[in-house]
From TrEMBL:
Role according to the record: Part of the small subunit (SSU) processome, first precursor of the small eukaryotic ribosomal subunit. During the assembly of the SSU processome in the nucleolus, many ribosome biogenesis factors, an RNA chaperone and ribosomal proteins associate with the nascent pre-rRNA and work in concert to generate RNA folding, modifications, rearrangements and cleavage as well as targeted degradation of pre-ribosomal RNA by the RNA exosome. Involved in nucleolar processing of pre-18S ribosomal RNA.
Top-level taxonomic group: Eukaryota
Ranges where the record places region Disordered: 1-42
Low complexity bias locations: 24-42
Matching InterPro entries: Utp18, WD40/YVTN_repeat-like_dom_sf, WD40_repeat_CS, WD40_repeat_dom_sf, WD40_rpt
Residue stretches of biased makeup (Basic and acidic residues): 12-23
Protein name in UniProt: U3 small nucleolar RNA-associated protein 18 homolog
Keyword Repeat: yes
Main localization of the protein described in the UniProt heading: nucleus
Subunit relationships: Part of the small subunit (SSU) processome, composed of more than 70 proteins and the RNA chaperone small nucleolar RNA (snoRNA) U3.
One Pfam entry name: WD40
């Protein structure tokens, strides 16, 4: 074809392609200008890059899927099922699993728009298996034997309760605990727990964490009603005896307790509340000990026997036992009892025929004698060691001055036929007098010095037999009273409310028996008492933090 004809054919084709007869015109619109060559190249680059990235991503997914299938080829079916339950079905898209693990855990509330089918599927996601078989014995309520256990036997209310179900036993244990604690303690009540739900409580917590110091403190005064205490190992557990315990006393400066009895021995034990290891025992041949006590400084132990005028003094520093066969100027043949003054200067010996004698603690020589009408039932020093209180067999109380040895006052103990015991508080506030009828009268010391007929502040009538032992604790918050004529006849009186603690003694246990002696540790952390069975029972008082 000639060249001119070929050019004409091309022009005709271009005219047919664009009806408007102009090059570059769109269908049904105005003609457009041709884009420059550099702009056409720049638009082509993003399309090529996106295509390359898509190809690379598909290739990476294919390789990851092949590797995962290779790893899971030997994996058990159970493990694959478990992974599917935990992580979901991510066979086709592992990125979904990664996005799920990266997102924070939030509590998702149930959507109210969910259909019933979806809710039922959620509930039945983990189907519960039915038991293969049922044992009829499992459905029967198991019974607990109450007779062959000494602890459960005390919880029986009548003889027909030989067996109790577990639920009934649990209720009975709960009742026993609440009775011992005087009710439900605060920590056991569910509504007492505080939940920091508002901004105010959160601010309090932040303030608490920003400060340092001791946040645990005890009440300054002992509360009445329930005395929090724990039964410890017997003080003389490492040296058991069956003879009556006549004296139990804590050392005034060391964590040591002394136990003496009618087995002719004085023993010292270290107090730890767990094993109470024995330190030393001193045996006095043919000398059943009626009373023993420490000196005020704790360097000596004094021991006296029944119906004997010999007084043994054991020097703890030198380790020597010194017998005092005769006191210069003292003509007494029988020494009934003795007391050591709180300041450690005097020794008061109760004789016969109403005489009591004042000795020098250092030299053991007689300073002077005093006499009352009738026989001397008991005597004690005041807290400042300047006065002596003596209770007579006629029910009268005498107050003597130590320096002048003159009688300052004399009064009748209200309602008493004859006295058995007397004690003074260490703060100089109270005088307690125990009588044969089981009544303990508590007087104000000032009224005992000034009035001829003082009235007791309170009469404690919780005992029905003669009160033979009275002891104030060092803080004058507890008065221990006991009678050796009746088992379990011991009470702890709260001061100044003059009410008896309801949880002591535990009558159902009946392990105290007849009490002959009592004492508190120097800071009231422990309380000990001795009985006729040779046991020195010891209790830890939780209100007091120190020994």
């Amino acid at each position: 074809m000639p060249p001119e004809r070929r050019r004409r054919v091309r022009q005709d084709r271009k005219t047919q392609a664009r009806p408007d007869g102009r090059a570059g015109a769109r269908w049904g619109g105005p003609p457009r200008k041709a884009a420059p060559s550099c702009q056409r190249k720049s638009l082509a680059w993003p399309r090529a890059a996106a295509a390359a990235i898509s190809v690379a991503s598909e290739e990476e997914k294919r390789l990851r899927l092949r590797n995962r299938l290779t790893l899971e080829k030997d994996k058990p079916a159970v493990e694959r099922c478990l992974e599917e339950l935990v992580f979901g079905d991510v066979e086709d898209d592992e990125d979904a699993l990664l996005r799920r693990l990266r997102c924070p855990r939030v509590q998702v509330q149930e959507d109210s728009d969910d259909s019933e089918v979806e809710k039922e599927a959620k509930d039945n996601f983990l189907p519960q298996k039915k038991p293969v078989w049922l044992d009829e014995e499992d459905e029967d309520e198991e019974m607990v034997d109450m007779m062959n256990n000494r602890f459960r036997k005390d919880m029986m209310k009548n003889a027909n309760e030989n067996q109790l179900s577990k639920d009934e036993l649990q209720k009975r244990l709960k009742e026993e605990f609440q009775h011992a604690m005087g009710g439900v303690p605060a920590w056991a009540e569910a509504n007492k727990w505080k939940t920091p739900s508002d901004d105010e409580s959160e601010e309090d917590e932040d303030d608490l964490l920003q400060r340092t110091g001791n946040f645990i403190s005890t009440s300054t005064s002992l509360p009445k009603g329930i005395l929090k205490m724990k039964n410890c190992q017997h003080a003389n557990a490492e040296r058991p005896t069956t003879a009556r315990i006549s004296s139990v006393q804590f050392h005034p400066r060391a964590q040591v307790v002394m136990v003496a009895g009618l087995d002719n021995a004085v023993s010292l034990f270290q107090v730890d509340g767990k094993t109470n290891p024995k330190i030393q025992s001193i045996y006095l041949e043919k000398f059943p000990i009626f009373k023993a006590c420490f000196s005020a400084n704790g360097e000596e132990v004094l021991a006296m026997s029944t119906h004997s005028k010999v007084l043994y003094v054991y020097d703890m520093l030198a380790g020597k036992l010194i017998p005092v066969h005769q006191v210069r100027g003292l003509k007494e043949k029988i020494v009934r009892s003795f007391e050591v003054s709180p300041d450690g200067s005097f020794l008061l010996i109760n004789g016969v025929a109403g005489y009591f004698h004042l000795l020098s603690m250092k030299t053991k020589e007689l300073i002077g004698s005093m006499k009352i009408n009738g026989r001397i039932a008991a005597s004690t020093f005041s807290s400042d060691s300047k006065k002596v209180y003596a209770s007579s067999g006629d029910g009268e109380v005498y107050v003597w001055d130590v320096n002048s040895r003159k009688c300052l006052n004399r009064f009748v103990d209200e309602g008493s036929l004859y006295g058995l015991s007397i004690a003074t508080s260490r703060n100089g506030q109270y005088v307690a007098c125990g009588s044969n009828c089981g009544v303990v009268n508590i007087y104000n010391q000032d009224s005992c010095l000034q009035e001829t007929n003082p009235k007791p502040i309170k009469a404690i009538m919780n005992l029905v037999t003669g009160v033979t032992s009275l002891t104030f604790n060092p803080t004058t918050e507890i008065l221990a009273i006991a009678s050796e004529s009746m088992k379990e006849a011991v009470r702890l009186v709260h001061l100044p409310s003059f009410t008896v603690f309801s949880n002591f003694p535990v009558v159902k246990k009946k392990n105290i028996s007849l009490v002959h002696t009592m004492d508190f540790s120097p800071r009231s952390g422990y309380f000990a008492l001795g009985n006729e069975k040779g046991k020195a029972l010891m209790y830890r008082l939780h209100h007091y933090s120190d020994f």
